[in-house]
Amino acid sequence: MALVWLLLAAIPSLLLLTQNQLFPLLDLQSPLARALYWLTTTGTAPYGVATVLVVLALAYCYMPKALFINLFLAISLSQVLSLSTSHALKSFFKEPRPNLVYLSEQALPDDAQLTPQTFYQLAKPERSQAIAEALTELQTRTSAVKLSPKIHQHWEDEIGYSFPSGHTIFAVTLVLTASYYLLLAGLPLFTSALLVWGLLMGLSRMLLGMHWPQDVLFSTLLAAIISSLSVFVVEKLRPRSKEQPNG
Predict the structure, then answer these.
(1) Is 147 helix (H, G, I), strand (E, B) or coil?
(2) 147 - beta bridge partners?
(3) 211 in catalytic set
(4) Helices (DSSP H) in the chain: which residue ranges?
(5) Is a pLDDT exceeding 80 seen at residue 28?
(6) Which residue in the list 87, 152, 154, 211 is annotated as catalytic?
(7) Do 228 and 216 contact (CB within 8 A), yes or no?
(8) 3-state class of 206 per DSSP?
């Protein structure tokens, strides 16, 4: 699990150390941006539930039953902890998203101008409307960031705070928790596929302008703590028998 976590944390760590970020480097109308949008939806409610169910269904097919039960319990516990922790921390830190900071730095007309301070004082429907108005004005400029329709809508929908990244906590918690049991079951290819998905989730959040590198890095660290705690609790409450695979 430590190696998996190091791989997941490497990119945001490098960006933070070099004081760089990935937004707005990517053309958000490109096929790559659209692919990253669809990937990021696998961590967005309600599709994140489907992602967990797919992982559980595949694990059920290839793992010993007793080991699968532990995996199911650990994933269930870790996801409850990650969701509640993410919501609590967002409300505490109140960090604006990169896309909002970007929009606030543009010289827009008064009726479309955004500032992070006033934006988060608005009700959620009003925040979405404010983003829509700013983007409508921005799209008339040749040098401005251009968004595909789906990403445009994503910006209007994701109007909460930035820190930490809920998508990253969800994905990395799932990857680390599942990987522990998948490796015990001798399923390295399944683990590798999950690792790639987790890496791309963090990248997608930064490239789409939804999170800063520190958001993704801290979320990766928090996910490791939650995952380790969940596995520890499950293994203590329901220890595996000697007959089960032990790696």
Answers:
(1) strand
(2) 28
(3) yes
(4) 2-17, 31-40, 47-62, 65-93, 98-104, 116-119, 124-138, 149-157, 166-184, 188-207, 213-237
(5) yes
(6) 211
(7) no
(8) helix
Distance separating alpha carbons of residues 76 and 147, to the nearest angstrom:
35
167 is catalytic: yes
Determine if residue 63 is left, alpha or beta; phi over 0 gives left, psi from -120 to 50 gives alpha, anything else beta.
beta
Looking at the DSSP assignment, which residues form a beta bridge with residue 28? Answer: 147
pTM: 0.91
- Asked if residue 247 has pLDDT above 50, the reply is no
Buried b (16+ CB within 10 A) or exposed e, 27-58: ebeeeebeebbebbbbbbeeebeebbeebbeb
User: Tokens representing 37?
Assistant: 């949008």
Question: Phi and psi at residue 202, in whole multiples of 5°?
Answer: -60, -45
User: Nearest to residue 202, comparing CAs of 10, 45, 74?
Assistant: 10
pLDDT in tens, 132-185: 999 988 888 766 788 999 999 999 999 999 999 999 999 999 999 999 999 999
Cα 202 to Cα 204: distance, rounded to the nearest angstrom: 5
